[in-house]
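Milestone 3.1: sequence recovery, worked example.
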């Protein structure tokens, strides 16, 4: 079982502010339901019973929309950041709660995949950290996600490069914005602002200690950081290439 979950929802959503009206991107509706709500519903179906959500931009809007999580059978708690801490800094702030394997996911990506398979793969490798990945050649996507990854045959990540430009030559995968982390990762993250992709993962890659898990064929990660990527996501749903549950 996963020992704790952090859903990241603190960003300012500047690139899609024209669509959100300046509100939090995780509350952007997809077919009448906020992305964040869809992700919480998915977590509950996958057996999760409690989750933290970090807040910074328009925190009251998120609290008002999500509440205590009981409508999904979840216990939702909040971590309000006066100064934004980044993806890893947000996790570090709650380190006392990570006494077993924890899951971190981006609350503003529309996500769906098997957490059981993800966790099983993480356990099999004995990794301290495992990243969920999608294959842009096989998985439908919106073309916005960054974090391009190449993987050795045993699942160890060979390279991790931030940015939307894919690497030259050879097959690659894309960061799906979901991480499984062991408690020993806490010593690798300092206080204050830290980002997993920029600050934490590169030294793990260099040491051969970061692993990847490719989503099953029906899994998906739809980034909606811009109006264009939102339209792409809606087109994938209209064409039934993505089936919302």
């Amino acid at each position: 079982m996963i020992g704790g979950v952090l859903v990241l929802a603190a960003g300012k959503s500047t690139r899609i502010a024209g669509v959100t009206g300046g509100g939090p991107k995780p509350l952007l509706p997809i077919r009448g339901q906020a992305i964040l709500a869809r992700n919480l519903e998915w977590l509950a179906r996958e057996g999760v019973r409690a989750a933290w959500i970090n807040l910074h931009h328009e925190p009251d809007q998120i609290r008002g929309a999500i509440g205590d999580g009981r409508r999904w059978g979840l216990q939702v708690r909040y971590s309000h950041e006066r100064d934004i801490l980044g993806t890893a800094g947000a996790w570090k702030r709650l380190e006392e709660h990570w006494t077993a394997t924890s899951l971190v996911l981006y609350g503003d990506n529309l996500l769906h995949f098997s957490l059981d398979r993800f966790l099983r793969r993480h356990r099999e490798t004995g990794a301290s950290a495992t990243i969920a990945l999608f294959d842009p050649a096989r998985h439908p996507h919106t073309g916005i996600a960054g974090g391009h990854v190449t993987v050795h045959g045993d699942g160890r990540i060979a390279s991790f490069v931030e940015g939307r430009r894919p690497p030259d030559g050879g097959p690659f995968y894309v960061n799906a914005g979901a991480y499984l982390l062991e408690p020993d990762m806490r010593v690798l993250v300092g206080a204050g602002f830290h980002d997993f992709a920029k600050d934490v993962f590169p030294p793990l890659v260099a040491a051969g200690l970061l692993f990847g898990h490719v989503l099953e064929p029906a899994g998906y990660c739809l980034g909606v950081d811009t109006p264009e990527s939102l339209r792409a996501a809606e087109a994938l749903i209209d064409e039934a290439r993505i089936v919302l549950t």
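Residues 227-238 form the longest helix (12 residues). DSSP finds seven helices and 13 strands in the chain.
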